[in-house]
Amino acid sequence: SQQGEEDPQALSIQEGENATMNCSYKTSINNLQWYRQNSGRGLVHLILIRSNEREKHSGRLRVTLDTSKKSSSLLITASRAADTASYFCATETWNTGNQFYFGTGTSLTVIP
Amino acid sequence: EAGVTQSPTHLIKTRGQQATLRCSPISGHTSVYWYQQALGLGLQFLLWYDEGEERNRGNFPPRFSGRQFPNYSSELNVNALELEDSALYLCASSLGSGNVETQYFGPGTRLLVL
Question: Which residue segment(s) compose the domain that A62 sits in?
Answer without folding.
Answer: 5-111
